[in-house]
Amino acid sequence: MALSKKVGFLSTASVGGISGSVALAHYLSSGEEEVKNVIQKLKKEHFTPISEKQDWETMLVEYNKQKGVQHARFINSGADATLEDLKAACEQAAQEDISNSRIYSKFKRWCTIPKTILNHLSDHGLHALKSGSNDMSDKGNWEKLKRSYLAKDMNSIYQLRDKLKQQEDESWKLLQSECETMSKEKSTDVDFDFSFKNFKEWCTKEAADKLS
Asked: What is the pTM of this model?
């Protein structure tokens, strides 16, 4: 495993450690763009490594909900992990090269502060269309996105294509509803990356603005 530089994850993001948080912030702002590692990639993708005890404990609960689920956790096991188990797994994963996409995905899922798709969208400087069930203010944009979805014969949002074809009146609300559901998905969900990609393409003002 060749790395230009290794980063000690727990040494810079220790549980409740002020000095650790300062060290991590210094590293993330150091501008060492040539260093290709997990921590640097997290910065670029707008994720923040866990540093507080309460966040570690909250994550451990989510992590143990996946016990016994094949390939969900760092180590396949039907037993509960301890806080030290999770911290050690994150420490090891932080040393991996970013080319190890499987480990990086698990690190991002289990070693960073959880966020929703809506939060993540905001961190990218993008804007979600209004998704309240009675909100008509973005109807025109929803209509454009719905037409584009059907024109491309997309089926990336589960069963949406067939639902749109079956309902003529106000069918844009079906897309709006799906986007509202997606917006609440969390980074601890296994399909977060896939859903975020869908959300950017079918639920945002920026995506609608690209359409005529």
From this structure: 0.80
